[in-house]
Amino acid sequence: MTFNTLSFETGADDVGLLKISRAKALNALNKELLDELMTFIEKVKQENTLRCLIITGEGDKSFVAGADIKEMQNMSPEQGKTLSNRGQEIFNAIEQLPIPVIACVNGFALGGGMELVLACDFVISSDKAKYGLPEVSLGLIPGYGGTQRLARSIGVHRAKMMTFTGGIYSAQELYEWGLISKLVAHDALLEETMKTASLVAQRAPVAIAKAKESINAMRDLSLEDGLKMEQNCFAQLFSTEDYTIGLDAFIEKKKPVFSGK
Ligand code: CAA
Questions:
Q1: Among the four 30, 31, 130, 207, which has the fewest Cβ within 10 Å?
Q2: 70 touches ligand 1 (CB under 6 Å)
Q3: pTM above 0.90, yes or no
Q4: pLDDT tens for each residue of 91-122
Q5: Is residue 28 lining ligand 1, measured as CB closer than 6 Å?
Q6: Catalytic residue among 78, 115, 173, 192
Q7: Per DSSP, what are the bridge partners of residue 123?
Q8: Are 6 and 19 in contact (CB under 8 A)?
Q9: 6-201 in CATH: which number?
Q10: Quick check: is 252 catalytic?
């Protein structure tokens, strides 16, 4: 896959590394980038060869500095709605991928960049990264899912404080508030993220997909319905090859090598 605004490579254990690559604009999400991101996500889903995907930003300074502000000038409400719809569609597609997606946050994660982080399954962050939803400083609000996903992650009151101040918050703060799962020294970020991704990639892929489906559904279901969904996902795994491989390996004291079936 070759793109103008993304770079991609596959490493050991079928871990994919996607870099958002518009460093001259601090990796801001312009139309071309959004289109390429959607094409990329659709391909990942269709080819079904990766076991884990890492998303990071090119360069040392920024993960993604938001939607492209220059492209948003002079838009009508209809154009604003189309833009929001497009961003939400792409971030939903990331959230719904059957493989784990790790945000590897190397710098500014602002506006749409913070919203991209929120669509990932978990976050490994540089201690130098900075987070924020500065949209109200532009006369706007977060439009790629930020008003919905942030409160579900760090709680309503912190989400409101971040959104209403439009301020920039440290990685340490977001770690304490539960958005960041692992906070690492800036220079060790990629290596540490790769290690975690490798671990995930060696586990049973269908089991991970079912765990992701079940945890994601939690947000929209009552506890009762969520528990039923968990039962169904759990039960379906008993028909997989990986379940046999996993249990046999445990009993034979071997390392399981999962087939993904
Ligand atoms: N869109 C377009 N270009 C951007 C950009 C963005 N979101 N963020 C940075 N850039 C560009 C700058 O215009 C600049 O380009 P030029 O060299 O051509 O002038 C280049 O990237 C470098 O940026 P700075 O010179 O500003 O770098 P800095 O280190 O002084 O500041 C920053 C860094 C604090 C991140 C600052 O660039 C900034 O505030 N960026 C905007 C952040 C923002 O408001 N994001 C939210 C966007 S709206 C949104 O995302 C809506 C939504 O929910 C969908």
A1: 31
A2: yes
A3: yes
A4: 999 999 999 999 999 999 999 999 999 999 99
A5: yes
A6: 115
A7: 103
A8: yes
A9: 3.90.226.10
A10: no
